[in-house]
Structures are given as C-alpha cells and as structure tokens.
Known about the structure:
The complex is a heterodimer of chains A (207) and B (59).
Chain A: E1 29-32, H1 38-50, E2 55-58, E3 63-68, H2 73-76, H3 82-96, E4 100-111, E5 117-120, E6 130-136, E7 148-151, E8 159-163, E9 170-174, E10 181-183, E11 191-200
Antiparallel strand pairs in A: 1-9, 2-3, 3-4, 4-11, 5-10, 6-9, 6-11, 7-8, 7-10
Chain B: H1 7-10, H2 30-39
Amino acid sequence: MMSASVVDVEPNWPISIRGVSLKLAPFRHMVVPTCIADAEATRLLDWFENDAPWRLVETDFYAQYEFCLWDTPDKANVLTNSNMLCGLRGEMARAFGCEFEERVNVVAHKLTPGQRIEIHNDHLLGEETHRLILQLNRELRDEDGGLFMLFNSDNASDVNVVLRPVHRSALAFEISADSFHAVSRMHNSVRYTLIFSFYRKQDQLAG
Amino acid sequence: MQSDRIDERGRDSQSEPVTPDELTVAVDSVALRRLIEEVENKGDTTLAGYNRSYHRHNR
C-alpha cells in the first residue's frame, strides 16, 4: 500500500530520494519508501536473476555475492549515467547538508539463504562518507530474513530499529564511528541491493 | 507504560513515528534474540569496515 509520504520518482530519472526527511538517531539516516521507478527495478531484477556477473566473497563477518557496475556498462547504463549520478549526488547533498566529490561507487550485492552481514559501521578514514542502499527483491516476507538493523552502539543487543527490505525502498546514511548496522540471516529467497557510495568534500570533513 | 517496541529504546517515539518499513519486535522476544545472535560480532575483528571488495568509481 502506498503511504502519503511516498514520493513519485521522476519519470526520466529512475532513482530519487526527494521528499524524505532526515532522522538523527541512532545516526543520521533516511528511509526512502520508494526510491526507484518500477520499470527500472523490474529490469534490474531480471538482469540480477539471470546473467549478472556475481562473484562470491566470504570474510570473517559477512558472505555475499557482489559485482561492480562499472564492469557492466551495457547493462548498468542508467545507473552509471553521469547525469543520473549528478542528480542523485545533488539530492544526497541537500538531504545531508554537505557537498560531495564527483566520484561515486556503484556496486550490487546479493544475499542468498544462510548468508548474513554482522554488525559493522563502514567507517574507514579517507574513504566513503555516505551510502545509499536500494532494495530489490521479489516481495520478501519477514520470515525470509535479510532485515536491515540499525544499532545505538557497537553492541548487537542495542538494537534501535529493524527495517524490512521492501522492494524499491532505500536507506541513505552518513558513515561515522557510530553508524553501526547489520543484515540478518537470509532464510529463504534472495535479497538484492544496489549500493551508491559518496565522498564528502575534504574541506567539509572537519568536525 | 511498558515498552514493547525496539524503536523506543533509543528514539523519541513522540517525534519519530514508526514508518511502514519498520518491523515491530518485542524487546524480550525470541525473535529479537535470534536476530541479535545472527548479526553479533563473533570474532576478534574490528567493527570498523565495509563489506565490499570493489573500490572503483567514476573518476
């Protein structure tokens, strides 16, 4: 069901975070109910499910399939289009009240049953400062897992909120030492995400 | 009032209403304990870091 806070995505611009207010706790973030146009979301799901170049990555705190969209210019097209990224960067800048460098990372992740991402904060000095995580899936149910969890501290018991990976929704957040988050274990089905990473201009990083 | 929502632990529910995307889980529930167990850090690794191996961008 569409709520009153849902914004229409610009017809010629498939991804948008406009019209959503910033939340300050547990860290600066925004939940975007509808972030991507339906037709583009369907196109991406079809691609992800059939012939995207997934590569399994396993570390000590997560296991997932990944690929970089800069490696697939023919299929990624709109997602790595410079005008689209410029517009999205501008929306992120207005939402978070800062300016970003031109460079943007765009990667795709896939979680399959049994996979999960333990609590972490993404905080690496000199690296990305803001993230936009867009959910794509075939209408996951709560029991399927893949829930996005935000924490008040580095203690996994200190949960602030649990967000459903609603298809076409997104979470944007400011990376900091406090931006602890995780993804619960997938039990059924498959959870796809598109991750756009932004770099705050260096002269704005102080404080 | 007894709190039964995890979103009331760290936020002011008066000013930040629950959105349709938020899952309500009772604080002392088995469901929440299971979620916590699934994501807690089980190793000696630092919690700082990003789950990505790609680091290429458009410049």
